[in-house]
Every structure is written in structure tokens, then in C-alpha cells.
Amino acid sequence: MNELRSHRWFGEPGQDEGVRTLSHRSRMRQLGIGADEHLGKPVIAVLNTWAEINPCHMHLRERAEQVKRGVWQAGGFPLEFPVATLSETFQKPTPMLYRNLLAMEVEELLRSYPIDGCVLMGGCDKTTPALLMGAAGAGLPAIFVPAGPMLRGNYRGRALASGTDLWRYWADYRAGAIGDCELADLEAGIARSPGHCMTMGTASTMTSAAEALGITLPGAASIPAVDSAHQRMAAASGRRAVELVREDLRPAQIMTRAAFLDAVTTVLALGGSTNAVIHLIAMAGRYEVPLELADFDDLSQRTPVLADVKPGGSYLMEDFFYAGGLPGLLSRLGDMLHLDRITVTGRTLRENLAGAEVHDGDVIRPLDKPLAADGGICVLRGNLAPDGAVLKHLAADPALLEHTGPAVVFEDHRDLQRRINDPAVRITPDSVLVLRGSGPLGGPGMPEYGMLPIPDRLLAQGVRDMVRISDARMSGTSYGTCVLHVAPESHVGGPLALVRTGDPVTLSVSRRLLRLEVDDEELARRRAAWTAPPPTFTRGYGALYQSHVGQADKGCDFDFLARPGRDPWPDPT
Predict the structure, then answer these.
(1) Going from the N-terminus, what domains does the chain have, and what CATH number goes with each?
(2) Which carries the bigger pLDDT value, residue 311 or residue 402?
(3) Is 16's pLDDT higher than 60?
(4) How far apart are CA 409 and CA 534, in angstroms?
(5) Which of 188, 209, 284, 339 could form a disulfide with 289 if both were Cys (CB 3.0 to 4.6 A apart)?
(6) Is the pTM of this model over 0.85?
């Protein structure tokens, strides 16, 4: 197959002969691979984010073997490449700092090696967008294999939801409602199998978005990680990767404006994570597709929430899978989607959904009985967030969605931890907790600090929600009246930097408003007195990051990667 990209490296004995092709073939033999094993076959890179420190991906070493089995079955030649793992649990200050690094690694690896197509293996929050962003720059045929959700947790006969129930029981512990023994049982039972969070957190939100985009096999995102269907999906994805090369079907043909709008609609119908806003905008930028905050707000007002899945609902991803999974939910949405666009299967979305059914109408609601009438995420603007902020009002106390209260300001996360329970800090249930210094530059990396803790003394009084505002993100498993992604961030002089304790702050979801009730002249005086904080990094990747990262409303991508165009392929000879 002289048309294969890998042919430029290997040629054929006696034809296209050169010292480089001879050298490349000899080194394949050094690897123990004979010419008859790989020559003329599509070379499929299996990019695996497995690592011993990433519990969400602990099974991906095995799944890679099943992907490779599928590649062999279809007549391809698989090569597994380890790429950076972004473990949401362990990587500090936040894996969001390294999302763009993984995307760069993927793009350059695919560009620089003799590869014809690829299988992208990920699932833990930032791996999905990073892998798909990298694939955009490389432009090779690609298919995504989601890691799958873990099994439901168990605590004294009750189902546990990763993240969501951790925060709830931790609040009970701080309030004195449970003790150390209960907490130990919770710790042992909340995460008990391979796979990412089994709530509709960022992981399931983003893998579902990938499926809605059309870059996975139908139904792939909902399969529990330990279900044998997950192994079969991995092998089928390997087979399909080879076919993609032969059909020359590339991600840019799939990841269109219509596909991204459908991904947004899907996220909203799922009651998905606010993190999807940042990631989908960044992903769309890599594919030269216009997508902005206004698209989310517009679609949110027209999209009902149909998935009754925690944290906004009652069930877990295992229940969602048995109820019909994402194909079942997409079939409910019907003509709200662009059904005639092409997907990675080579068929249209309409064809993929033929025969999809919902088996439990409590888990995946019908359109006339939604969990919520709108998509649960709203975009706020005002003098406190001129470039926008987001709120997942589906997961908020309805009584707080129209609220004005006095600000209590914390300079950064360390200041928050130190003073949140200080009796000298006058905090009441009506207070508006404000955290700054936590955005893309200030965090650094925009950590998930946005679910600010409620003071212990208020928890003991039964308070479980307050208005909280920050330039941070929050976990998709979190909940509460948490205004996030305030842009521009305080670190670059955004209005959040000008708020003072005691200032009245207004949140109005009905008006999509976030306003600091301070007159313009006073704000101008404060701005004149503001000084920029020093840079966090002086060298290395951190210095590159802070020199080029964008704000939240632009997806936090690097300016030099969000540019249109594609770099030329290297000459292997």
C-alpha cells in the first residue's frame, strides 16, 4: 500500500530503496518484527494513558491488548505508545495545568513517527480533551476508546457516588454528624473498581461528549469499565481504526460545527460538568470550529435535562448504562441533534441511533417528563464577569439563584483554608464567599477550588449551600451555588481582583447577571491602586504555560496551538 504514510519510512525491499528505508526496516527486525508482519499494513498507534498512579485507567494496559487484537484482526499493525497520564486524584496543583502538555505530546508523537492512524485511550477528566486536541493537530484517522465508569460504591448497604457523596459525608463529618468509623467505611467503599467516576462528573461528561461528537463507537462511553462489553468495544475500536485509514476518514471531517453543537446539547441533557464548557471550547478551536459561551447559554435554555444521574439527579452511570446508555438518551433528543452528519463509524448519527432504546424511563427521562426544563448550566455576565462566568444551577439551592449578599473575600486557596473557620471572619448564610487567585494563571492551572467550603459552625446549624464565586473550576461531581470560571481572572486584573469584603454582590440567574454593587468611580480608584502579582514560574513548562495560556472563556488553550493551519509532515528519508 504505497499510499500509506508509513510507507515513506519503510518502503519495500528492492523498491524505493534508500539508506533510511533500509535502516528503518533493519531496526524493525531488531525489535523482533519481520518485514512480512508490518510492511504494507496500516500502522495504528495505540496511545495509552495507563499509569500505576492513575486508578481510573488501571485497566487500560489490558484494554490496549484488546485494541491491538482488533487491529491485527483487521489486517493492521498496532504499536502501543505510552503517553502522559493526567490523574485527577493525585496530580497537583491540578492536571488542568498539563492538559495542553498531553495534547502537544499526542500531536508531535503522531506527526513524527511512521503512523497511519491511531486509537486514543483515556477517560479521566483531562485525558479526553487532551487526546482529541492533539489528534486535531496531527490530522490522522483516529478513534477514541473511553475508559468507562467504575462500579457504584457501597457504604453500609447504600450506593455511594464518587466525589458527590465524598463531599456530602465530609460536610457531615465536619458538622459532627458522623465520626471516624463511618468515615473509614466510606473511604473503603466509595471507589472499588477500575474506571473513572461513576457520577456525571467531568469524566463521564467528556467521554459522553466524545461519543456525541461521533469519535467513538456508538454506546462506548456508558459501558462500565469492568463489563465484558468494554473489552469487546476495545477490540471493535481497533478493527475500526484500520478501516478508518483505508477509508481516509479523518477527525476534521467528523468534528464539525454541527458535531460540537450536538456535544453541547448532549452535555446539557446529561446535566453534565461545567468543565465541559472550557474543554469543548478548546477542542473546537483546534478543529477551527467557532464555539463560545453564548452557544452554551442559548442551547441550555432549549435543552431539557433527561439523565437522572448524580450529582444533579439520583442514579449512577451503571444505572444509566443498563437504562440504554448514551444512545438511548440521544434517541430521546431526536431532531434536537444534527442527525445526518458523519461519524467515526462511517455512518451518520441517525444510522448509528437506529434501534436505540430506553429501558428505564426514570433514569433516562422522556422529553415530556424531564428532570429539569432547561440544561442546568447558565452563563452569567456583568461588571464582575465581563467575559463571562458559569453556574450549574441544576446543582444549586433554588433559593439562592436570586441573591444579594455581602462579600467575604479570600485572596487565594491557602488564605481560604486558613481563615474559613476563623470566628473573627464574620460569615453568615447570606454572605457571598469570594475566592480569587485561582484562575488559569493565578491557580496556577485553574484548580478545582470552586466548591468553597462552608464554615463548620454553619454546617452544624444545617447550612448546606451558600453563594460562592471564584475564577476557579470545580469538580463535575461537586454541587452547590458555585459561580465558576469568572473571566478575566483576578491574576490579570479582572474585576474579581477589585472586590472587598463587605461589598454587596448580586447573583441573578433569571437575568444571567453577576454584579458587584459598587459604583464605577470607586472601581476605577481600586483599579488604579491594583498591582499585578509576580509570575509563578521562572523556567520550564510552567514558564511556557504562563506565557501562552488563554482565559477560561477561550478554553485555556495555548495561543500558538489554537492558531489555524497544520504543520508539515516530516521527511523520513
Answers:
(1) 41-151+193-353 (no CATH), 154-189 (no CATH), 378-529 (3.50.30.80)
(2) 402
(3) no
(4) 20
(5) 284
(6) yes
